[in-house]
């Protein structure tokens, strides 16, 4: 064999029986081979287990899928190249022309865009309500046959809490599927509710380090089976190396989430006591209008704290520019603290009533609390609040 051939057929290293790595290898391969045509054909007929092509399945991404399904308390999972990819592919896989979807003003902007523009182009209609309007949900379910109800909790950025038990009961009674974007709450929360499909951005808490993107769809086996072929065909597959980084991030997920949530509560308390602040949105504060509901649904109140500065847009800009430890950047849930101001929050297509429901004012600021020392964050915030004035 010439070396030009050999580099394309390097020596195989097979581990002896009873010898395992503590960290699984990254299966950075597109293709998998069986020993014969007969074996390959048997696999393609579904009669022989194994892997064939990484867009459909790969051992590294599969390990991540099985772990996430277990963390969220469901049977199966499909991972995707981003959180938005998970949402888009779920919407496309679960709806068809003529279907109707309920979603909410407080839902993540790109999700609303996908439902309004993308599904709208394929003849799927929708109704946009407030997440607080359970009577509206009941009324719309009674008047429109509805395929799915898409919601999130806590909502982005003002951390409204959805009444998950009520929403899932109403949807189930009307024969609608519930899809919950559980990115803010994380994999350890909300699993006991009768949500049919959870979607997550793995870009946030799963990796935690802000260096990789991914998404996940987690549900009972029958629903995942129904979506699997469409997901393969839509092609938004997670790369095995990204899956490896996310698996690595998950090792510290629980300690990160708990520590960042504890810091977030202290940040919320500091803000609530400050003269420059008109209102704080954090479900862990007793002053949050849905604190009791959040307490019944959640173990941790999360790492996102939003608040309204009395000084409006100019104060929000001065505040964000004055922070030193908070990066002025999108995303959330990573180890470094982040800040965004209203122009970075989207929602410009909402009408005046919907803007009111969204509760985003000119002076709203969203913080994502990282893993820095809490006292350092409090010091930075105190300095920036003084600079913002009131
Ligand atoms: C609630 C929520 N869902 C989904 C996403 C989308 O995730 P990704 O950026 O991985 O596409 C985000 C991103 O900010 C988010 O906040």
Describe what this molecule looks like in 3D:
The protein is α/β, with parallel strands linked by helices. Helix content is 40%, strand content 14%. It has helices spanning 3-6, 37-44, 59-72, 83-94, 109-121, 134-143, 164-173, 221-234, 240-250, 253-272, 291-297, 312-322, 352-358, 374-388, and strands at residues 76-80, 100-104, 125-129, 148-152, 177-181, 197-201, 215-219, 277-281, 304-309, 327-328, 338-340, 364-368. The strands form two sheets. A seven-stranded mixed β-sheet has the order 1-7-6-5-4-2-3, sandwiched between helices. It has a five-stranded mixed β-sheet with strand order 8-9-12-11-10. The radius of gyration is 23 Å and the shape is globular. The mean pLDDT is 96. The protein binds pyridoxal-5'-phosphate (PLP). Residues 82-84, 108, 152, 156, 181, 183-184, 201, 203, 213, 215, 331 line the site of pyridoxal-5'-phosphate.
Main sheet summary: 7 strands, mixed
Mean pLDDT: 96
Count of helical stretches: 14
Strand content: 5-15%
Radius of gyration: 23 Å
The total beta strand count reads 12
Question: How helix-rich are the residues, as a percent range?
Answer: 40-55%
Q: What spatial form do the alpha-carbon principal axes imply?
A: globular
Distance between the ends: 77 Å
Instruction: Give the strand line-up of the largest sheet.
Output: 1-7-6-5-4-2-3
Which class do the helix and strand fractions yield?
A: alpha/beta
Uncertain segments: none
Order of helices and strands: HHHEHEHEHEHEEEHHHEHEHEEHEH
Bound small molecules, deduplicated: pyridoxal-5'-phosphate
């Amino acid at each position: 064999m010439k070396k030009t051939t050999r580099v394309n057929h390097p020596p195989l290293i097979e581990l002896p029986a009873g010898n395992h790595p503590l960290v699984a290898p990254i299966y950075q391969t597109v293709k998998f081979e069986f020993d014969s045509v007969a074996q390959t054909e048997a696999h393609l007929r579904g009669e022989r287990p194994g892997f064939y092509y990484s867009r459909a399945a790969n051992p590294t991404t599969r390990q991540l899928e099985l772990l996430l399904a277990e963390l969220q308390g469901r049977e199966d999972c499909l991972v995707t190249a981003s959180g938005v990819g998970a949402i888009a592919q779920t919407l496309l896989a679960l709806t068809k022309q003529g279907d109707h979807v309920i979603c909410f003003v407080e839902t993540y902007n790109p999700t609303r865009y996908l439902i309004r523009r993308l599904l709208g182009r394929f003849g799927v209609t929708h109704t946009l309500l407030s997440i607080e309007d359970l009577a509206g949900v009941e009324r719309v379910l009674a008047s429109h046959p509805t395929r799915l109800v898409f919601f999130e909790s806590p909502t982005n950025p003002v951390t409204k809490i959805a009444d998950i038990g009520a929403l899932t009961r109403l949807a189930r009674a009307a024969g609608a599927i519930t899809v919950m974007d559980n990115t803010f709450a994380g994999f350890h929360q909300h699993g006991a509710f009768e949500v049919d499909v959870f979607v997550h951005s793995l870009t946030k808490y799963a990796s935690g380090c802000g260096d990789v993107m991914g998404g996940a769809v987690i549900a009972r086996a029958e629903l995942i089976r129904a979506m699997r072929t469409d997901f393969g065909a839509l092609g938004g597959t997670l790369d095995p190396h990204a899956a490896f980084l996310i698996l690595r991030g998950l090792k510290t997920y629980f300690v990160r989430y708990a520590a960042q949530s504890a810091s977030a509560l202290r940040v919320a308390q500091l803000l609530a006591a400050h003269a420059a602040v008109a209102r704080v949105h954090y479900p862990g504060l007793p002053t949050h209008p849905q604190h009791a509901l959040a307490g019944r649904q959640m173990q941790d109140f999360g790492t996102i704290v939003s608040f309204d500065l009395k000084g409006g847009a100019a104060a929000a800009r001065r505040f964000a520019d004055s922070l030193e430890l908070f990066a002025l950047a999108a995303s959330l849930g990573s180890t470094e603290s982040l800040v965004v101001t209203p122009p970075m929050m989207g929602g410009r297509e909402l009408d005046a009533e919907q803007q009111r429901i969204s509760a985003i004012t000119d002076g709203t600021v969203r913080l994502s609390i990282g893993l820095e020392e809490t006292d350092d964050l409090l010091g930075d915030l105190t300095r920036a609040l003084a600079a913002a004035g009131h």
